[in-house]
């Protein structure tokens, strides 16, 4: 379980997050808030890309950034920031090679993740020729192939059309992993187990998706 206690993040002396306390226990957790409220910074803390200026981010009771990086996969908003190799299977193999896994296991893991999402035909495709939706799926596959315990997605559907958005979210829904999604798409998060509302670097709403989203909409109309 990931637990944040009194987490503060400052950049150049400017407070970005203030006194964040969170226990991430639910299966599907959404994070909402206005532009610049601190959502992405909070999301990046969850897998150790970002570190607190003050406070702690614990995984199973221990502050271990390396363990956090291994346990939590991160899917970026723009898959071009995530896909680095020219061929799909090379890209999927990258992190696994870094782990020092044997060739046979790397191949088996890539087979499995591609089959799972019906992406096998893309295995030898050039990554720069993929459509936006295909890229987003390959970026997700690249995170899943590392077998993380939890996945954080930062605005994963903004580049997708309605069809690809539905397909992508169906893929997310099918995961047994704990999932945290940062999104401005409130409809996407309505079915989630919990939604956290961040404003001006602090949590101002935290609870059932319906209640927190309705309160967020009401505030926007003031
Ligand atoms: N490295 C940095 N140096 C200075 N300020 C930063 C830095 N990174 C983020 N910020 C500021 O921190 C605030 C929160 O940024 P963050 O990206 O977490 O917001 P967000 O809620 O995800 O926004 P959006 O919905 O627009 O993506 C913003 O005002 C941003 O300009």
TrEMBL record:
Residues 2-222 form the ABC transporter domain. CDD domains: ABC_cobalt_CbiO_domain1 (cd03225). One of its GO terms (molecular function) is ATP hydrolysis activity. InterPro entries: AAA+_ATPase, ABC_transporter-like_ATP-bd, ABC_transporter-like_CS, ABC_transpr_CbiO/EcfA_su, ECF_ABC_transporter_ATP-bd, P-loop_NTPase. GO terms for cellular component: ATP-binding cassette (ABC) transporter complex. Pfam families: ABC_tran. Keywords: ATP-binding, Nucleotide-binding, Transport. PROSITE patterns: ABC_TRANSPORTER_1, ABC_TRANSPORTER_2. It comes from the Bacteria. PANTHER family: ENERGY-COUPLING FACTOR TRANSPORTER ATP-BINDING PROTEIN ECFA1, HEAVY METAL TRANSPORTER. Belongs to the ABC transporter superfamily. This is ABC transporter ATP-binding protein. The lineage of its organism: Bacteria, Pseudomonadati, Pseudomonadota, Alphaproteobacteria, Rhodobacterales.
């Amino acid at each position: 379980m990931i637990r944040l206690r009194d987490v503060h993040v400052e950049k150049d002396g400017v407070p970005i997050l203030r006194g964040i306390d969170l226990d991430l226990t639910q299966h599907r957790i959404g994070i909402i808030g206005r532009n610049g409220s601190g959502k992405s910074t909070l999301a990046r803390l969850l897998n150790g890309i970002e570190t607190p200026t003050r406070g702690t981010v614990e995984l199973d009771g221990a502050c271990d950034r390396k363990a956090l990086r291994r346990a939590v996969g991160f899917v970026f908003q723009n898959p071009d920031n995530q896909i680095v190799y020219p061929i799909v299977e090379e890209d999927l193999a990258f992190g696994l090679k870094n782990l020092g896994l044997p060739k046979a296991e790397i191949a088996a893991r890539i087979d499995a993740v591609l089959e799972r999402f019906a992406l096998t035909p893309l295995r030898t495709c050039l990554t720069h020729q993929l459509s936006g939706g295909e890229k987003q799926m390959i970026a997700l596959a690249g995170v899943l192939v590392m077998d993380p315990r939890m996945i954080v997605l930062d605005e994963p559907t903004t580049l997708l059309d309605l069809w690809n958005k539905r397909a992508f979210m169906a893929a997310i829904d099918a995961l047994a992993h704990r999932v945290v999604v940062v999104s401005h798409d409130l409809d996407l998060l309505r079915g989630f187990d919990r939604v956290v509302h961040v404003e001006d670097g602090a949590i101002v709403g935290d609870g059932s998706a319906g209640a927190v989203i309705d309160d967020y909409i009401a505030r926007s109309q003031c």
